[in-house]
Fold this protein.
Amino acid sequence: MERGLNDRTDAAPIAEKHTHLDKPSKAGNVVTERLAWNALEYPVPPSANRMPYMLGGITFFGILVLILTGVFLDQFYNPSPLGAHESLAYIMTRVQLGNWIRSVHYWAASLVLVTIVLHLAYVFWRRSYCRPREITWWSGTAMLLVIFALAFTGTVLRGDQEGGEALAHAVAGAELVGVPGVVMTPDFAPSTSLLARLHNAHVSLLPLALFGLIALHFFLIRHLGINSREPKTHVFTMHLRRLTGLGLVFAAIIGMVAALFPPGLGFPAVDGVEVTKPFWPFLWIYAAENTLGMVGMLIAPAVIFGFLFMVPVIDRRPNEAGGRPRWVSATAAAVALLYLIALVYGIFAPKMQHLGM
Amino acid sequence: MRGFGWSLLLMACLPVTAVAHETGVIRLGAKTASAGGQLEIRGSKLTKGTEFRLELRGVMKTFTLLNVRTDTTGQFVVHLSLPADAAPGNYTVVAVAPDKDVVARADLAMTAAVPQPTSPMPVGHEGMAPSASGTPHATDAMMDLPVSTGSVEWAAITAMTALSLFGGLWLLLRRAQPA
């Protein structure tokens, strides 16, 4: 039987030992008892405290920073097509700490997109998608999709030229898809604007989906354990402490970067013209559009996410049976190489008109 | 504690006081207008024979439209040209009394100025700032906004960043106490 599957034989001694080690104060005991904090003192392997295993946790901390800063920004944001851009300018120039908090939101989004991709790559490398962790992998891949959707809607909300072009691309893509894409067209709800609906998605629908997936992801990690053969000699609260420490250090780095390099705001969008490139995480899609035309914006994500969702299906060899089949590794390497080439090409590629082509 | 109660009571009364002078009514000829376009403004239920200043208040900028005098029934009607340089967005037309109180208001959605017919801009001609004529041109350039960070803001940023950094390092370097 694989270790980690509700294997809690060594849980009690470690929890007891840890409680004695920390010697919590009387006040600490009161809080611990009422919040059932002891429930978190379950055993984990020492590898949980190593950096590659903490990438998921850092991503979660980044999401928390995004929520805090997002709630602040939303107090001043106007999701009407006429007022969106001006309200952004207002946040940047008139609101106390507004420019810095917007900058923190921008840089935290960038960090989250980097750490979630690195987390996914490491999980793939470790074959942590193998039975019984297929759903853990799928929930993570779905989270990646939702985070890309959040980054996209966030770009559109700016109402500047880049945001306007992103919105036009989304509508064009929705029209290409046909019936499933109707919801992303302005005609779906003539009583309101598409920008207002995307704002709704950015602040409620997508975060709800994200937290549902995070809850499922955490539940599965808790009960299936992390993929490690090491004995469980540490407790989760120690891991949580290290993770919180690392998260705070990353938050401080984001705060510093945000203060030194605040992102700008483009001029209000002019319809029907393409003169900008998208937010950097979407440059690989931009490269696909340059190469394949508008249909590239559908093909590229379909290839990447299709492969990611298929991974546990095409590599069904149990973890104990050794490495993954060579052809799966070769396909993964090809997809990753394609992604990186497209990303780099997107940085240096000439600006092109895609809409209406 | 008693002082706190009085403060709460005072705060509860403040909004009432703030809107108490808004007894007048402004009606606009249209709820949406384009920058530089015409607009009819009708005022009523205002102090008779008094001069009011009409302002167009936006998020970023306030425009003074003109001064109007109410008739013997407390009404006025004006037709005016909206500022051509007003950015698209949501505005409020307000009537300001001589004692600087806002006595009436109405919402107005401003759309961009109607562009003059021009030849379509060739694709790829990026980097062109909005022209002097006000006709918008697409550009990938960033706006030169008057962003400034005050000393209090810098202090707050430094404090929050430092707190996060040292709090994080403390948690990372802290070891469990031996039994």
User: Anything to note?
Assistant: The beta strands of chain B are 25-28, 32-34, 38-44, 51-57, 62-69, 76-81, 89-96, 102-111. Chain B touches chain A through 52 residues (CB under 8 Å). Residues 151-173 of chain B form the longest helix (23 residues). Residues 98 and 149 of chain B are 35 Å apart (CA to CA).
